[in-house]
Amino acid sequence: MKQSEILRFVDTIHRDKEIDKEAIFLAIESAYLTSVKKKYGDSESITVNIDRKSGEIAIKDGETDLEIEDLGRIAATTGKQVLFQKIREAERDVVFDEYSSKVGQLISGLVHRTEGPNLIISMGKIEGFLPRSEQVPGERFRVGERIKVLIQDIRKNTSRVRIILSRSSVDLVKALFEMEVPEIADRTIEIMGLAREPGYRTKIAVTTYDMNVDCVGACVGVRGSRIKNIVDELFGEKIDIVRWNESIEVLIMNALKPAEISSMDLDFETKHAKVYVMPDQQSIAIGKRGQNVRLASKLTGWNIDIVTVSEEELEKLRLAEVDEEGKQIEIGVIGSEGEGEAPAEASEDQAGETAPESEEASESSEDDSSESDNESAPSEAEPSEEGTSEIQASSEEETPETESSPEAESAENQDAPSAEAADEAQEVTESESVEDSEEKQTE
Q1: Does the domain made of 245-338 have the CATH classification 3.30.300.20?
Q2: Where are the beta strands (DSSP E) in 140-278?
Q3: Domain 103-166 classified CATH 1.20.81.30?
Q4: Residue 386: per-residue pLDDT
Q5: pTM (2 decimals)?
């Protein structure tokens, strides 16, 4: 190969394959080196250098220059194979570096051909591979039809790069929303979660931190124009847009729409939710083939069980919840007070309440005793002086026993009515005996 031909060859490959010129020069040097070693033997002292500006080739074995005018057919064929291999490797590296940064992005291509159930998608200079496992059930494409696919993975083989495409990934729906909804592309609206069953249904949870933006309305578009384009691209797949909420209870209710939830029990340790619905809402909550509850479970990250209850059972559940809340409030109030303080306060209150009662009882007993004394005085007959002296003596003998101490007096005051009655009866009998004795003396 002449010097001008080498430079022209390097420039052509550089423009067509977009390979760096230095990589092409290295490939030509490697091809010449292989051919020379094929003819002169495998020697480590053989070197090949090509001038990058003039294209002049210098081949040396140590200090000795070697002629390459006649390398022979075998050596030339070997060098040619090495040259093409090096160029393919350089081309593979260029493609890998270009598309490795595009993993997860949405691209458009043409169906170039089919390989059994797999599709080969033309993406300009290279081709992508859409396997059957990454296709959506029910979708059929013809050769030459335009298709939007997601770059799922990129793999480097020995001689080429294999780009794996996908139509069933959840990231495909996310990329379609970013393309159709500008608010999602500029992060005014954020996608918080996404669950999909390809070809059937998708649930997407969105939120916004701008109070002037309706996240659900922006995704739907004017008269559903935005969501309609996405549904058409997915060949009629149903899409539910869910409003995100930090409260898991509200999020589960939003994720299970259009079903109406009556009540639910949450277990935060196991992330298990038991959702109660009326009988007419059971089929709506579960969905066709269980899709609604299954996608809601994936979206929220909780295990959701749908339980059907009647109105009576629902009322019992609500009453049980009210009772449990009341018990929890009582326990919280008791626990907030000191254990030793509550009984002390209660004893002081009780003492304060009982003290007036005892005073009232003692006052009433004294009043009763005074009234009984006043009533008994007129009923007694006026005896003689001897009779009165005997009565006074008997009363004086009894008073020291009754008035022994204030404590005894307070104790007797409680039994005052019964003691006064006994004293009255004794005084009446004594007065009768005195009268009998006086009558006998007069006779």
Answers
A1: yes
A2: 146-156, 161-166, 189-197, 201-208, 238-243, 263-267, 272-277
A3: no
A4: 41
A5: 0.63
